[in-house]
User: What shape does this take?
Amino acid sequence: MGGGLGAGALPDVRMGPRAYVGLAGAVCFAVVVAASALVTHRDDFVGFGFGDLWPAGGLPIVWLMLRGARVPSIDTVLLGAAALAANLIAGADTDLAAVFAVANTVQCWVAVLLLRRWCGELWGFGGERAISRPRDVARLGAALCLATAVGTTLGSAAAAYLPGADVALEPVASGLWFGRNLASALMVVALAVLLGHRLASAPPRPSLRGADARPAELVVAILFTIATYGLAFRFDELPLAFPLLAATVWFGARFSTLLSAAHSFVVGIATALLTLGGLGPFADVADTDLGFMIAQFYVATIAVTGLAIATGRDERQALADDLRQAQEDAVYEASMRAAVIGSMVEGVLVVDEAGELLVRNAAAGRILGLGDELGSDVQFSLSSWTLDGVQLTDDERATTRALRGETVEGELVVVRVADVGERVLTISAVPLPRDEAHHRARALLLLRDTTTEHTHREELAAFAGVVAHDLRNPLAAIDGWTEMIADELDTGRLDTDLAREFVSRVRSSSRRMRELIRDLLAHATSGSRALAVSRVDVTAIVHEVASARHVGGLVSAEPVPAVHADPVLVRQVLDNLIGNAVKYVAPGEEPEIAVRGRRVDARLVAVEVVDHGIGVPAADRERIFDEFHRAHHREYEGSGLGLSIVRRIVTRHGGTIAALPNPAGQGSVFRFTLPAYDA
Assistant: This one.
């Protein structure tokens, strides 16, 4: 397919442009072109043959366009034969008819090749678009004008060597050739492209009248055209030619480009035929050839005027539609960006070097603890430190570095906000395109609150340290006792009682390791295990735990209201609390444990585990629920994880737990709440 001027491409000479009609269509076109000589032939007309005929100047171009023909083809032969026949019918001598046939064939091919190159986007010349822009009209007119000039020059120059050359070389005769072929080509080719594009377009097609025109207006415009042309050609002695353009302007400004081109085609034919019949202002010119030449240039003028006005309107409408669509797209994109930024959990800030806060989302205010109060006067005044406690200077802050063009990725800083406290933030900052209108650099900041993650990492580090320490001690004991056993075996003096003592010590260390590993696993799963809640009989679980620990005679349980909780985790809570109550008693004393419960409100049940043990020091009553904290770590073994597991389980159920002194005197009361079953 041939490319247009905008694409800078030439037609594919191997394949040729698309063909719309077959060989039979080419023969029909040849017959029509030859027969057109009969329509406009006048015996008394002074001219030089085929160049005077109308509309033969446009039909051959449409013929080659619809055929998608190449220069060396049967179409060129048929075109030359049709042109020769038309010139002979028009009364030209054989030699002159042959010269004009060659000139018209060259003229048509020059027009087609130029149109394929300059208007390759248009339907019929390699593209799929209609004539819709003034530059399409300019390219179309330029190609046809240049091709007609080539044909006129070639025909006039060749005719100079034939008898009657004085007639052929007359300026009026050459102008008549040029005007008739140009007018014919402008109207016929433009109408063919527009009509072909409409027929080839898939439904639904736009209104033939135009987007704004009503049927009544079309009727009035047609009547106005008939009236103005009737007056102008009826009263040819009056200078009434100037109102004729008004109808063309009306159709071009109000109706579709196709309808405007059809209007110019009809009035062009009417003008030519009426002038040929001796009617109208152009036939009144003393020189018949000159009058008819003026008529043809008038026809070319109305064709170009109508197309220019109509395509100008189409282009403005297309630009308006594109602008409206661009505005709608911009509004949609803005709303989409706002929705995306607003839904982000990371804080988003866009700032410039003047300190203006250009963009922010709700997450940024939430992360900085300022909410809607976050503004330009606040975000630059926030003090920040490294994790080591070194305060960052203005030049070291991520915002300043990004405004200088540096990219900051995942930098951890501590930000202190008044009335909020310290937060650990992960900040990334990238430079944005410079605001050339205000000559300011811009930067994008992404904030993520990693306070909890940082705390968890610190806890994990401490957790790992404690685990390593607590596991190392029993391992060292096991290693030491087994080494002593090996030494005794080597000497052959291993006493049975001594061996029994060594094994007992190894078992004790192994038990401590096993209990620590069990507590570690319980601690890891207590916060991640999915809750399987149901009705839980707390009193029954108390008896099960006491029986499993072989302390049934030491534990008493009053009826406790049923709770709505995970029975496995509730058993873990009671097992830890009862186990601690059994363990933490003074030497030589027997544990005494009581479990009781009551409704504290419509939603919660409070459960209390009361013991008469050594109690919890007042300074440790909050801290004992922290991981690895032990109030009596010197006197009693343990991992320091039991009560942290209890608190995690209770919290996951929406309850609370507290360590209180026993009001009866010695010991402690561990009170926790769980959801009531019938709440």
Q: What stands out?
A: Confidence is low (pLDDT under 50) at residues 1-15, 43-54, 377-381, 631-635. The chain has five domains: 1-200, 207-341, 344-449, 455-525, 531-675.
